[in-house]
Write a structure and sequence with these properties.
The complex is a heterotrimer of chains A (508), B (137) and C (117).
Chain A (H helix, E strand, L loop, with lengths): L7 H15 L4 H29 L2 E4 L10 E4 L1 H24 L2 H4 L3 H17 L3 H20 L4 H32 L4 H9 L4 H19 L7 H5 L5 H26 L4 H24 L3 H22 L2 H32 L10 H4 L1 H15 L7 H15 L1 H27 L19 H23 L1 H16 L2 H7 L1 H7 L1
Antiparallel strand pairs in A: 1-2
Helix pairs in contact in A: 1-2, 1-5, 2-3, 3-5, 3-11, 3-14, 3-19, 5-6, 6-7, 6-11, 7-9, 8-21, 9-11, 11-13, 11-14, 12-13, 12-18, 13-14, 13-18, 14-16, 14-17, 14-19, 14-20, 16-18, 16-19, 17-18, 19-20, 21-22
Chain B lengths: L3 H24 L7 H19 L1 H8 L6 H18 L23 H27 L1
Chain C lengths: L1 H19 L4 H22 L24 H32 L15
Helix pairs in contact in C: 1-2, 2-3
The chains are: A mainly alpha (508), B mainly alpha (137), C mainly alpha (117).
């Protein structure tokens, strides 16, 4: 089906960004535009998802150039679901920014750049052209550099150097891989690539290209030997920015892997084994890193790394069941990780520190708030019936039945350590009596906040916690959608047919 | 560094380069050129002017902050892409052309407006970058 | 021509990596630029080099069978150049700011991130 609706989520974010750039010196108007724009974005994304659900895969040939020649935008169920989840997280982040981002930062264009970032994310999820994917990646990293350095504090700049270098390197490797792939197949359309890559006689060269893609996306999504930029930078910006990064950016790398390694490249035992080993080590090193850290945000950063491993390892198993688990886990993970970084912002606001040795007594003073914060924390661990539990059923089932003992052990190890880490955070931050909280004379503590600011802090956390709970209590529905996505990913015939109606008819 | 030769030359070169940049912009649909190159040439004109006369003179000459050209150019480009989508119910960015070519300018269509948007964005971005660098240094 | 470009690509990648692995921040930027240029030349090379053969189909044919100058790699390179232009400008400003904050060009000093409180 051809429909212009596919491009609307991208354009809408661009329009918000442009409108905000026109009101550059009016942060008050920018805030209103951001929140109302993101509310509409959620509606657009839901509309897109229902249309995709009803009519099947939607495509749009930009500029009316027919498919393998022009850039095509495709929305299958996977893209539509991710756009929806991104929009919901985006809404929460823009609400959280209202109070979390100080006005001085807004004057440097925080909101327009954030919306450009969302436009880039939606574009990357919706494009069906591999070079266009690269362009969206670049839009995302340029905006993320600016967001990361906005304010220009010393730790931010130092984190940015590492983030910048590694991400540029990843893009260059990605670009190299695209170049080699174009040289091999002579096309950039992903559906067309799927047909042409299969026909390339030189399998060794295809394998090398696949490994280049794996390295490029691996740096972006922070898998094992390539993740060191992440814990060095994610704890430096304000909580709202860290929430966008932690929730969405690494998952984009995983999305790209899921897309490219199911659609373009065929199942290859070497790549799969490589993925399983790297992802297993990612889980282990990530969770060990989380064990030894004392800064709450660094703990969460290492947990991001560890949980990226779950999704990549499932892709390495390369069966429908495993991919179902990976997709379900991704849906859950985007919501929870975004929420966690906002929680860390709230903790910092209440007690003036990120250090778990110094935090404490949260439960004593704010029992109801603690209950709210328990939802994202324990969703992450996967305590039944919260949302992290359900995707893990699929993951473990796939690992046990189709994977092997190494995968099962890695998953179990990661889960147990996550439980330990969160239990430690819970015990230190919430249960332990408050002893040596820092004295900060010029710091605006939580109890100095107005009611409006408190609401601006709590609403987004409550919103995402509610989404987590919905995912948990409607797990059967989410699971059914994930299954549909997995079967679409593993059998891309329908995707190819929709994008290239003439070509696939020729082949039959 | 104030050089009288450069200063005098830049007075003549600025309008000439701007005119050349518009020429490059307009010939860009079928021949080498286009919004990006044209925009770079236009910003070079202003950069040259600022070398010769100092940054403040150039800013005075521009009147508006170059950063303002970015949203302006983006909206021109976006609207040229949205026009076929909203009015004609065709895909995003599908080219719409006028029937008859105009004098001097040639055939006018949405790609031209897209290129004008690119031109403005490029001028805005590169001048913002260069002015910022000049102020930081 | 192909062999020459292949060697140039390899040299650019190698030199870029070497520069990136040194301790100076300025050399890091130079390394990134070199690798980016290497990638561009690689795309150019892999798009098959053909001189003076425009991709124009004769009126009576349906497919172009001969070797032709492929315009796609050039479009890709142009896009990549535009993107790297923006990134490099950003990098220079960023590293300048870092230099102002640390008073050092040495990458080993970019390591003072400590949990403030």
């Amino acid at each position: 089906m051809t429909s212009n609706l596919v491009i609307v989520p991208v354009l809408w974010q661009f329009l918000i960004a442009v409108a905000q750039m026109f009101s550059w010196f009016n942060p008050r108007l920018q805030r209103k535009l951001s929140v109302s724009g993101n509310v509409i974005q959620v509606l657009i994304a839901s509309w897109l998802l229902t249309e995709v659900y009803r009519q099947g895969i939607l495509t749009m040939n930009a500029g009316k150039w027919p498919a393998p020649f022009g850039i095509v935008f495709v929305s299958d169920t996977f893209s539509a679901v991710l756009v929806l989840i991104t929009s919901i997280s985006g809404l929460a982040v823009s609400l959280f920014s209202l109070a979390n981002i100080v006005e001085a930062r807004m004057r440097f264009g925080y909101f327009p750049i954030m919306h450009l970032l969302f436009a880039g994310l939606n574009g990357a999820f919706l494009t069906g052209d591999i070079f266009n994917l690269y362009v969206w990646f670049e839009i995302i990293i340029i905006s993320s550099f600016v967001l990361l350095t906005i304010g220009g504090e010393k730790p931010q700049l130092e984190g940015a150097v590492k983030y910048f270098t590694l991400n540029i390197l990843a893009s260059t490797i990605f670009l190299t891989a695209i170049g080699v792939l174009y040289g091999l197949a002579g096309t950039l359309n992903m559906a067309d690539l799927a047909l042409k890559v299969a026909a390339i006689p030189n399998k060794g060269l295809v394998e090398v290209t696949a490994i280049l893609f794996l390295v490029g996306f691996g740096i972006k999504s922070a898998i094992f030997p390539l993740y060191f930029w992440l814990p060095a930078s994610y704890h430096t910006p304000p909580a709202a920015i860290a929430a966008i990064f932690g929730g969405l950016l690494t998952k984009l790398g995983v999305y790209a892997m899921l897309r490219v390694f199911t659609l373009v490249f065929f199942e290859d035992p070497i790549i799969d084994t490589l993925m399983i080993i790297l992802a297993g080590l990612t889980i282990i090193t990530g969770s060990l890193g989380a064990m030894v850290q004392t800064n709450v945000r660094k703990i969460f950063s290492y947990l991001i790394i560890s949980h990226i491993g779950y999704m990549v390892i499932a892709l390495g198993i390369h069966t429908e069941l495993a991919v179902t688990g990976a997709v379900f886990y991704m849906i859950h993970d985007i919501v929870v990780k975004t929420n966690l970084f906002m929680v860390s912002g709230l903790l910092y606001r209440v007690q003036g520190t990120h250090h778990i040795d110094r935090l404490g007594g949260f439960y004593q003073y704010y029992p109801r708030l603690s209950l709210l914060l328990a939802i994202p924390l324990f969703s992450l661990v996967g305590v039944p019936p919260l949302s992290g539990f359900w995707p893990k059923i699929d993951l473990f089932k796939a690992a046990y039945l189709e994977g092997g003992s190494f995968i099962t052990i890695c998953l179990a190890f990661g889960t147990v350590i996550t439980l330990l880490v969160i239990a430690r955070v819970w015990a230190e931050v919430f249960w332990r009596p408050a002893e040596n909280l820092p004295e900060r004379p010029n710091f605006r503590f939580w109890h100095l906040f107005t009611l409006a600011e408190k609401i601006q802090y709590i609403t987004p956390i409550a919103l995402l916690s509610a989404v987590s709970l919905i995912i948990a209590f409607r797990a059967a529905d989410v699971h059914r959608i994930s299954q549909k996505i997995a079967s679409e990913l593993m059998n891309p015939k329908n995707y190819i047919q929709t994008v290239l109606p003439d070509k696939s008819a020729e082949q039959q | 560094m104030k050089s009288i030769i450069l200063k005098k030359a830049s007075d003549y070169l600025l309008p000439l380069l701007l005119l050349f940049s518009v020429f490059i912009l307009l010939r860009g649909h079928y021949l080498p050129g286009g919004g990006f190159v044209g925009g770079l040439i236009a910003s070079i004109a202003f950069v040259l002017h600022s070398f010769a006369n100092g940054l403040n003179e150039t800013k005075h000459l521009l009147r508006i902050h170059p950063g303002f050209l970015m949203p302006l150019g983006l909206s021109v480009s976006l609207l040229s892409g949205l026009y076929p989508m909203v009015i004609k119910k065709e895909p995003f960015m599908a080219a719409q052309w006028m029937k008859e070519p105009l004098d001097v300018i040639g055939l006018v269509g949405t790609p031209l407006f897209f290129d004008i948007g690119v031109y403005l964005v490029v001028v805005g971005v590169s001048l913002t970058i260069i002015f910022t660098l000049a102020e930081v240094a | 021509m192909e062999i020459l470009l292949a060697i140039v690509t390899g040299l650019l990648y190698g030199a870029g990596l070497f520069m990136m692995l040194r301790r100076s921040m300025v050399k890091l930027i130079i390394g990134l630029i070199l690798i980016g240029n290497g990638a561009n030349i690689l795309i150019f090379l892999l798009g098959r080099i053909a001189k003076g053969k425009p991709p124009i189909i004769p009126a009576d044919a349906k497919v172009l069978t001969e070797l032709y100058a492929d315009p796609v790699p050039q479009a890709l390179i142009l896009t990549a150049i535009v993107i790297s232009f923006g990134l490099q400008a950003f990098a220079i400003v960023l590293f300048k700011k870092v230099y102002q904050a640390l008073h050092s060009d040495d990458l080993d000093t970019v390591n003072t991130i400590d949990d403030d409180l």
